[in-house]
Write a structure and sequence with these properties.
The protein has helices spanning 83-96, 102-112, 126-132, 140-157, 195-221, 227-242, 244-261, 264-277, and strands spanning 8-9, 14-16, 21-22, 55-58, 64-68, 74-78, 113-118, 161-166, 171-177, 183-184, 189-193, 290-292. The chain is an alpha+beta fold. The mean pLDDT is 77.
């Protein structure tokens, strides 16, 4: 018997909230669950506004590996080198009944995903876009900017001196002496060397370089960059770290170039050049990791 509120209809299902089941077969067949399921049997935890919000996982050849009802309407391409590990982890999660959990799908997308594809109007969740295009705690551009500030300040302080007071120490009036003046004069001005401070800044710049190295290694191990990109990034980071002010300037220019290369206008320019000028058989979706088909 039906009454008000006892049946809900979406584009791909008709749902009975009393039973927690749909009245029609799921058009996307999942061999591990009943074709009459709704919300992967978790109607309180999961969402599915049109009856089709599943993340689809495919390999690089386009073969469907798995689907999860995580409220995200998108297709994740799993890198072939990570496919077996992904399948192993998915089966383990499925045996525990947690394959639809957001934390697992975010982790799989971030660690194993090579690209994210979706069509205009689809219900794509922000977490999946961020997972496929991870934002580091410190972006490369921020690290490079910090590096050049450290290197520039170190260059100024090395061999310099600073005063804090003038007129026999009675008037607070800080001043930096690039010449390294040691103080004296009728005002009995006392100065302090800033060389040790400069050395501390150099250590700080080394710390930034080590941190950036860990970021690059993480990007490589998760399949975000190729072998060639890995070697280039390490080389650039090494010179940026030990090259002083010139190296820091190189690093900043490198990161500015990387930032520009991720902008839409540059990707469109690259796509038109490869397709129209070089005649390569490319698609727009190949220009980015998270884009509409």
């Amino acid at each position: 018997m039906y009454g008000i509120g006892n049946s809900y209809t979406a584009e791909f299902w008709q749902y009975d909230p009393r039973l927690g089941r749909r009245w029609n077969n799921d058009p996307a067949d999942k061999h591990w669950i009943s074709s009459y399921h709704a919300f992967s049997n978790k109607p309180i935890k999961n969402i599915d506004p049109n009856g089709a919000t599943d993340t689809k996982y495919e390999d690089e050849e386009g073969n469907l590996l798995y689907e999860t009802n995580d409220g995200n309407e998108a297709t994740v391409t799993i890198a072939n080198e990570h496919k077996e590990q992904f399948k192993k982890e998915f089966e383990q999660a499925k045996n525990l009944g947690v394959q639809d959990a957001l934390m697992y799908n975010e982790s799989w997308t971030r660690r194993f995903g090579k690209a994210l594809h979706f069509k205009p109007g689809e219900n794509v969740q922000d977490w999946s876009v961020k997972a496929i295009s991870p934002e580091e705690t410190l972006s490369g551009l921020s690290i490079a900017t910090g590096g050049i500030l450290l290197a520039g300040t170190e260059n100024i302080l090395d061999g310099s001196s600073i005063r804090f007071f003038r007129s026999n120490g009675k008037i607070f009036s800080p001043k930096l002496y690039i010449s390294g003046w040691r103080g004296g004069s009728r005002g009995n001005i006392k100065t302090y060397s800033t060389t040790n401070l400069a050395r501390g800044l150099k250590i700080g710049s080394y710390g930034l370089g080590i941190y950036n190295t860990s970021v690059i290694i993480n990007q490589y191990s998760s399949g975000q960059i190729s072998n060639l990109q890995f070697a280039l990034e390490l080389g650039s980071n090494f010179y940026s770290t030990i090259g002083g002010l010139n190296g820091a300037a190189w690093g900043l220019g490198w990161e500015i170039g990387r930032t520009i290369a991720q902008t839409e206008w540059y990707l469109n320019l690259k796509f038109r050049f490869q397709k129209d000028v070089l005649g390569w058989d490319v698609t727009r979706s190949q220009m980015c990791t998270a884009c509409q088909e």
